[in-house]
Amino acid sequence: MVSLLKLSKVTEEGVRFLSPHDGSPMLLTPEHSISLQNSIGSDIIMQLDDVIATTSPDHARIEEAMKRSVRWLDRCIAAHKKPEVQNLFCIIQGGLDLELRRQCCVEMVARDTPGIAIGGLSGGEAKDAYCKVVDTCTGLLPEKKPRYVMGVGYPEDLVVSIALGADMFDCVWPTRTARFGNAITSSGTLNLRHSSYAADFSPVEEGCPCVCCRPPEQGGLGITRAYIYHVAAKETAGAHLLSMHNVHYLLTLMKSARTAIIEDRYPAFVKGFFAKLYPDRSKYPEWAVMALKGVGVDLLVD
Amino acid sequence: MADNLTLGLSQLPDEMLSFTILKASEGIAPRLGKLAFPGRSTIQTPHYVGNTSRGVIPHLSQDMFSKHTNIDAVYVPLEDFIEKAPQQTPPVYKLVLPDTESPLRRFIALKQDALLIMGARRMPPVAAPAANTNSAISILTSVGFRHLASSDYVAAAQRLRPDIVVGLGDIVYKQQAKPSNKRVAKMGDRTEAWTKDIVAGKSGLGKTTRGDSCYSVFAPILPISHGLQSSYLDELADEMRDQLSGLAIYDPGSLVDLPEVLSPLPRLSFSEPASPQQLLHELSLGMDLFTIPFINAATDAGIALDFTFPPSNEPGSAKRPLGINMWPSTHATDLSPLSSGCECYACTRHHRAYLQHLLAAKEMLGWTLLQVHNHQVMDQFFAGVRTSIGKGSFEEDRVAFETVYEPELPEKTGQGPRVRGYQFKSEGPGEAKKNLSAYRMLDERKELLAEASTPSSGADAKDLEDIGFAEVAERQ
Lengths: 302, 476
Known about the structure:
Chain A is α/β, with parallel strands linked by helices. Helices cover 43% and strands 12% of the residues of chain A. In chain A, the strands form three sheets. Chain A has a five-stranded parallel beta sheet with strand order 4-5-6-7-8. A three-stranded antiparallel beta sheet of chain A has the order 1-2-3. In chain A, strands 9-10 form a two-stranded antiparallel ribbon. Chain B is 31% helix and 14% strand. The chains are: A alpha/beta, B alpha/beta.
C-alpha cells in the first residue's frame, strides 16, 4: 500500500491510516484486503504490500518493507478464498536496491502466483534507476507469467519497459493529464490550454482515428485543438474529449508494439517511436538510450 | 388563422424555417406545432432545446450527445465565445468555411441535424453590474464583464451563421432589481432598434446561403407589460412581421396580450422556469419551445429527475418528489434504476448505488449519467404533454400533476462540480469560497490514530461489513 496519505502507520499487522473522507482511523490488513477483493470479484487481485518511496534514504526501512511484503504475500495467499477464479499477483518490492529486488524476486517467484507485479516504482526516482530495477526483475521472472509494472504510463516508459520484458502497465496519467488540457501525441504532449492553440483548427493529432480527432465525414467528431482550448478546464466535456483521445493513443501504441513484436521488428518500432518523438536525435533521453542498449537496441544507429 | 399561416409560409423561400401549428384552440390555450428547418430534424412542439455552456450540454461530450440523448435543438450563447472581442478577434471568427456551413456548428462539433439557436447570453445569465447602453448590452465572458454592441452581434450572426438568432433585448433579468420607470421607457426603443439591426443584417455581407438570409430571427418580447412596449410590438407586427421567424419570450405573461398577427410565430421561452409546474403554466399559455436551466441545475446538484406527464395513477396520499437526491448513502446498496421503467442509457445500464458512489467519489461520470437521465425525463415529459394536448386533456392532466407532485424540486444538498468564473458573479470581499477544497490536513487527528484499536487479524469481509469498510476502530 502506497502511503499517499500523510499519516499512515505500517505495523506487522497491517496499515493504519486516517480516512481521507472523515479522518476516522482505519486498519487494512492483508487478510482484509484480500477479503475485500474477493467480494469485488475482479479477475486480477493484488497482494497488500509495504511500499516505501524509492527515494527514501532509509535503507533499513526499505529492506524491512521488502521482507514484510513477502510475509504479507503468504498471508494474502492463505486468505485468498477464490484462487480458481481470481488471479492473485504478488508485488515485488525492494526500492532501487537491486540486491533486495533479486531476493524479493526469488522469494516471490517461489510462491508461484499466477502473475507478478513490479511495484514501488514511478515515485520520482531517476529513470535509469527505474530501468535497472525493471531489467533486473524481468531477468529473474519466469517466462510464462504476466509481468505487470505498476503505475507506469508515459509513452517512452512503456516502450522502453516493453523492451526490458514487461507485459502490463497501469497509470492515471493519460486521463489526469487530459483533465489538465494536455494531449498525448506521437510528437509529444501538447498543453492545449496554451493560447497558441486558441485558433488552431487542426485535430488534436493529425490522422488520429480516435472519435475525437476523426473528421465528421468519417463518422468522428472533428474536434479541433481550438475547441479543446475553448473548453479545457472549463467544462467537464473537455476532459472527456481529451481522455478519449489520450486513452486511444496509448491503446494504439500498445497495439502497434504487439504487432511489431509478433512481426519480429520491435527494435525498428522503438527507433521509429523515438524518432517521431524527438526530431533531433541528440535530444534522445540518455536513460532510454542506455536502457535500450542494454537489451541490444541501439537508438543512435539506424 | 391556420389558412393565413399556410399562405404566409408558402411565400417564404424553401430554405427557411417553417412553423406549422397543428392544433390550437381559440384564445389562450396550449398548442401543438411542428418546427421544420431544411437539413435539421423536425421538432414537434411543445418541446425544449438543449441548453449549452461553451458549446456543449454540460457533462455530455458530443458523442454522448449524439448517441444517448434525443435532443434536436440547442441554444448556444455568444458570450461563451467572444472573450476579448472586439479588442481581439475571437478564435471561432477565424474559422473559415464555405458559405453553406456554420463555423459555430463546426467549432462546437454539433451534429448536422440539430437545430442551432444562438442568443447573446447564457441561460441563466449572470446579471452584469453595468447597465445596458443605447447601443450595447452588458455580458459576461470567461474573462470578465464587458459590452456587446448590437452591430457586433449582427456581425457575429452573419459570420457564425447559426440557424436561428435570438435578437438582442434590453432585458432586466430576474436576478436584477426592478427597472425604474425611466429605464422601462427606454427598453422598448432600444430593443426595437436592435431588432431592426439584426433583421437588416439577415441579407447583409453577401454571405447569403439560404435564400435571402443567412439566419432566421427570433425577436425578443420584453418582460414588461404590453402597454410599456406597445410601440415596439406594433413595429414588430406591422413592419417586421415578415422578417421574423419566431419570438423569444422572457415573461410568459407576455403571451396573454400578444398582437394577433404575431401568434403564428413559434415562441421560445427564456423565463427560467424553476419546476415542471411552471413549464405547465407556460404551456397552458401556448408556449412552444423552452430553455430549461433546471435540468442542468438538478444534474449538478446530484438530483435524478423523477416525474412523468400525465402522472401515473399510483395510490398514495403523500405528494411525490419531483426528483431523487442521489447523494445520501441510503442509495449505497440500492440496485434499482434511477426511475423505474426509464429507458435512458443510465437507467438501463447502471443503478442508484453506482450513481451514489460516483457522486461521493466526485467522478465526472456521475454527472454525465445524471444528465443523460434528466434529459430523457424531459423528453418523456414533453412527449406526454403533446399527447395530452392532442387528446384535449391537458388541463385535467395538469391539475393531476399538481396534485400528485410536490411543487418544487428537492433541495440541493451535495456539492456540484467546480464552479467556473463565467457561472457566477463575485459578491465582493469576504465572500465564501465557491469551490471547497477536496482534502485537508489530517494532523489534528494524529492522537486518534495512536489510540485506535484494531480488529483481530483473522477478521474477514463478513465481519467487517457489519461495521463498514474500512472499519472505524473506536472513534473517540
